[in-house]
Structure to design on (314 residues):
């Protein structure tokens, strides 16, 4: 697929990120006017599109620039506002126009440099807040990864809806969720099988909005800038504890690592060994975590087992 030739600068990208982080992703023309050229850039790129109008004006008399509610005249019924000296009629103007984020156009621009299996026909979910672009082959990764583009995930209510969506549509392997919200607004909770990646962290600065595949691959391998004491990749393949990097290749090990890291991050780090072995679908020959991790450098250094329980040593 091809990407628009118009470059999105930093100010426009931040404005788009701020709009995308809201529930309805709408903004008035009056608000855009205060963003200098950023709003105009997004409109010209087709990422913000008209969605009706708002019943408010900027007064044109001695009320200066005070936003004033539009009301119906008690006699004529015509819309306007009462100025200091006279009734001011209001017609539909550009200032009253409301713009909304075109999620489909924005998401297509974001994945323009990724070869997604559903690049031409993404599947929308959560009222268009999430778009499923199928799978893509990413640099330095053997298996294809699922690609979703989402907005509004930093709102707790939307993230809970997202959890329910994942329950209905669990990932096959790793699913990368590229979210448009400001990355510093709220840290998203770990969710097994999912790697939440802020667009701001992997954007191609030459384009200003499209994801750079090589940067995305590096982010998936090394994690975000702010990891905390424990960070684990969505598929459990990489575990970083206090800056020390550990890699796991076996599918059963990955499931166990993801469960242990999720438990630690959730504040209840001790898990029954039997639960992990069952979820990892280990055979009858694997009766302890030592049978699964024995010989791996993390065993007893980071991954501990005592009796019927296990945990991460952090």
């Amino acid at each position: 697929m091809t990407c628009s030739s118009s470059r999105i600068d930093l100010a426009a990208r931040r404005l788009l990120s701020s709009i995308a982080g809201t529930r309805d992703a709408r903004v008035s023309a009056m608000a855009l006017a205060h963003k200098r050229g950023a709003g105009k850039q997004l409109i010209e790129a087709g990422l913000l599109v008209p969605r009706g109008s708002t019943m408010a004006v900027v007064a044109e008399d001695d009320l200066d620039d005070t936003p004033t509610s539009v009301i119906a005249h008690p006699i004529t019924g015509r819309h306007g506002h009462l100025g200091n000296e006279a009734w001011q009629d209001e017609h539909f103007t550009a200032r009253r126009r409301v713009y909304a984020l075109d999620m489909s156009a924005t998401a297509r621009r974001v994945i323009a440099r990724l070869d997604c299996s559903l690049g031409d026909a993404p599947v929308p979910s959560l009222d268009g807040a999430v778009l499923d672009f199928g799978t893509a082959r990413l640099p330095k990764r053997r298996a294809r990864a699922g690609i979703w583009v989402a907005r509004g995930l930093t709102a707790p209510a939307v993230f809970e809806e997202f959890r329910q969506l994942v329950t209905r549509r669990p990932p096959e392997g790793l699913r990368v969720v590229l979210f448009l919200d400001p990355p510093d607004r709220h840290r998203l909770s770990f969710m097994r099988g999912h790697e939440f990646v802020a667009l701001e962290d992997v954007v191609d600065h030459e384009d200003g909005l499209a994801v750079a595949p090589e940067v995305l691959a590096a982010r998936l391998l090394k994690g975000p800038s702010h990891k905390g004491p424990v960070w684990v990749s969505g598929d459990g393949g990489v575990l970083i504890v206090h800056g020390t990097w550990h890699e796991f290749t076996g599918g059963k090990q990955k499931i166990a690592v993801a469960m242990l890291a999720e438990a630690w991050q959730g504040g209840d780090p001790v898990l029954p060994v039997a639960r992990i072995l069952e979820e990892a679908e280990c055979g009858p020959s694997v009766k302890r975590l030592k049978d699964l991790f024995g010989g791996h450098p993390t065993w007893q250094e980071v991954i501990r087992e005592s009796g019927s329980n296990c945990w991460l040593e952090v």
Notes: Residues 227-313 form one domain. The chain has a mean pLDDT of 86. The chain has three domains: 10-101, 102-223, 227-313. The CA atoms of residues 20 and 151 lie 5 Å apart.
